[in-house]
What does this fold into?
Amino acid sequence: MNRAKQDVLVAALLLLFCGVMIWASYDIRDLGYPGLKPETWPRFLLILLSGLSALYFIRSLKETAISTEVSSSEIKSNGWKKYQNATWCFVLFFLFLASLDYIGMLLGGILFVFALLTALGERTIRNTVLHAVVAIISVGVMWLIFSYALRVNLPEGNLLSIW
Amino acid sequence: MWDVILQAGSAILLDPSTLALMAIGVIAGLLTGAIPGFTIAMGVVLTLPFTFGMSPIQGIATMIGVFVGGLSGGLMSGMLTGIPGTPSSVATTFDGFPMARNGKPGLALGLGVWSSFFGGIISAILLVALAPQLAALGLEFGPWDYFSLILFSLTITASLSGKALLKGLIAGVLGLLFATAGEDPINGMARFDFGWDPLLQGFAFLPVLIGLFAFSQLLTDIEDSDRARRPLLEKSMSAARIEHKQAIKMIFARWRNLIRSSLIGVFTGILPAAGSSISNILAYDQAKKAAPDDKTFGTGDPDGIIAPETANNATAGGSLITMMALGIPGDVVTAVMIGALMIHDIVPGPSFITDEPVLAYGVFIAFFLAHFMMVGTQALTLRLFLFATRSPMYILAAIILAYCSIGVFSLHNIQFDMWVMLGFGLVGYTLRKLGFPLAPMILGVVLGQIAELNLSRALSISDDMTLFLTRPWSLFFLILAVFSFSFPWYQEAIKSGRRWSTYFMPLAIICLSGPVLLMEGYIRPAIGVIMVLTSIFMAWRSWKQVQINIEEQQT
It folds into this structure.
């Protein structure tokens, strides 16, 4: 997909988002106090955003008509690889957050950093050891600073609290 | 007043923990600025979690340390490798790198460090002198004027997005919209919570900011696997000894450039949302135009180092003026500082200096002090920088992501904030990839509630909407918003040689003179008259130039 087509899709998604949010703005209760009503400001912003998105949609449609297509094979070869590392980050961060209640911040953080380093770096035995050391030291130091120096109660996790 | 200064001074200068935190902040800022791919805003955002446990004065002093350090850190990698550490030191590379390559790395670094220092000190003096005056002016503002000022800030941020004006505007409105989630600030009614309790509190500022800015920036930095696995800087570098004496002598000999670049920096900083990434190039361009022989520029001319480095540090003073006097962020960094103050229940605005004098004077003192610390720690940081650049980006990115999650959790001790960070990280990364500028969105998030509160106050006092157009200050800012909105078209018109572009500035000045003429007293209307005369003169000169061009074309 070239940039112009991408823009058309984004503009359409923005318009859809505006529609959903305008619909949701009718759920905002008004107590009838004088002055600005709770739904007025967000609704004004949504109408403004809808107008801008519509403009963006029309402009992108015009650009699509004049732009040339990028060959699909080229996209297939570059597309996924370009976002591979970002996808790893999002997936591993999601798993880290989802497991936080069970394994806690210390263990979860170490596992997250180790997994991310292994996913992003070269997979050799030397690197695996290095990644493990970096994960333990970096998260361990941060955990100590936040827990003891800044007195933040970081999640312990059910697994560690058993002990 | 003196007791306030003494109180603020003792809170910073006599407190070893504040001094230590500031020094750490300066060193961290210098490193953040020096490492290509990391930005000053990112450094200040990542400092935020540490400031929760500090007093407001300690927190803001630490962040000022990071800010000043970051502005000066970019010169190190720019001069030694030719890759600018931050966008604010792009122009420094033009002459800094050739000078270092010509065998004078110590002098190049010295010129950069001391130009940053003098630029910062000049802007600090202007900060102390101008912020209270501008705040006094700001006290005249009613909610109508303040709302229009916010509107102007958002349009100027979007217009600075250049060709992506429409995307900039969409990003700004999206930021304002995100700030409406949760309880409304006037009646406490739930908005866009979709029946889910965690959303009732809305989105906290810090997770949104870290997600939008730091998370998405890190993901962009590690996109290319090969590059992410290589050391940050592969070029061989050695820690050069900074030549202080010679550099100071050379800067004093070029005092005109120093003063001019400082003023360019301060003025750019005062403008909402125009930061040091613009001022360093503007100052370089002006230094080149003012030079008797501009052929030496690009080959290691000292003026080419002095101008951008002076301007980028002076911009910090300018943006702090706007932040302290009006509560409007001068750039993304001051937007983060406003967020940090809000976490401590302090809302900057025109009454900030009178309501929080100790904190306000603390900012002045910290800004002065940070520049001395920056000079003192440069040599040490240069060695740390050389060490840090040996590690690959993916290792730094993974550690910083883990740090971000712990930092975000420590804000309210709830996991929901971490999910918000992930969500906004995804939003920020997607928007970056689609070519949306993030600065308008961040300003929208920061200014959203303030805009709504002022609009509500205005409508509570009177439901007459024409007050936005009849009050001089409000009209002044609305006219500025219209002209800043049309600024990208004006720039295009200049490039393509359209005739109307020559009348844009006279038209802007004459339109702005209207509300100035309506203001009370004698001085402001007199300024209005001067503006009218200036615009007439400019229009006449433009018309004459057009006539000459037509005659030349005919002959």
Notes: Helices of chain A lie at 3-25, 40-66, 72-98, 100-120, 125-149, 158-162. Chain A has a mean pLDDT of 85. Residues 72 and 78 of chain A are 10 Å apart (CA to CA).
